[in-house]
């Protein structure tokens, strides 16, 4: 019975998911952000480690996008139309590295070793 409900609801959820992602993408484009910019390194240690592993120019570009978005939001403005057309919120720069970091964390957990970049690791050493 549960699998039947999942089969019936799956197409509806998928369409709603696509519509939601498009709406969020529009709002992110308004400020020049990408989906990966929403990842918070202060809340997730894996994101912090993934950002540390990225090339410096990618991290600098991320920080510039975040600063610009904060500035635009504070001014209650959005990007000019010519810049708005060039935005690519769906372009990912963090996902692959983040998956690699999370896979390493899972592997270390299976081996019983803590990840060397966790806050608990630094507090114990």
TrEMBL record:
<comment type="function">
    <text>Component of the ubiquinol-cytochrome c oxidoreductase, a multisubunit transmembrane complex that is part of the mitochondrial electron transport chain which drives oxidative phosphorylation.</text>
</comment>
<keyword id="KW-0999">Mitochondrion inner membrane</keyword>
<dbReference type="InterPro" id="IPR036544">
    <property type="entry name" value="QCR7_sf"/>
</dbReference>
<keyword id="KW-0249">Electron transport</keyword>
<dbReference type="InterPro" id="IPR003197">
    <property type="entry name" value="QCR7"/>
</dbReference>
<dbReference type="GO" id="GO:0045275">
    <property type="term" value="C:respiratory chain complex III"/>
</dbReference>
<keyword id="KW-0813">Transport</keyword>
<protein>
    <recommendedName>
        <fullName>Cytochrome b-c1 complex subunit 7</fullName>
    </recommendedName>
</protein>
<keyword id="KW-0496">Mitochondrion</keyword>
<keyword id="KW-0472">Membrane</keyword>
<dbReference type="Pfam" id="PF02271">
    <property type="entry name" value="UCR_14kD"/>
</dbReference>
<dbReference type="GO" id="GO:0006122">
    <property type="term" value="P:mitochondrial electron transport, ubiquinol to cytochrome c"/>
</dbReference>
<keyword id="KW-0679">Respiratory chain</keyword>
<comment type="similarity">
    <text>Belongs to the UQCRB/QCR7 family.</text>
</comment>
<dbReference type="GO" id="GO:0005743">
    <property type="term" value="C:mitochondrial inner membrane"/>
</dbReference>
């Amino acid at each position: 019975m549960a699998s039947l409900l999942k089969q019936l609801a799956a197409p509806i959820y998928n369409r709603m998911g696509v519509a939601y992602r498009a709406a969020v993408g529009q709002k992110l484009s308004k400020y020049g952000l990408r989906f990966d910019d929403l990842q918070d390194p202060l809340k997730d240690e894996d994101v912090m480690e993934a950002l540390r592993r990225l090339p410096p120019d990618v991290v600098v570009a991320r920080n510039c996008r975040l600063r610009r978005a904060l500035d635009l939001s504070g001014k209650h403005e959005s990007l000019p139309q010519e810049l708005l057309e060039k935005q690519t919120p769906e372009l990912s720069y963090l996902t692959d590295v983040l998956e690699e970091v999370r896979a390493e964390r899972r592997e270390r957990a299976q081996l019983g070793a803590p990840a060397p970049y966790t806050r608990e690791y630094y507090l114990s050493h």
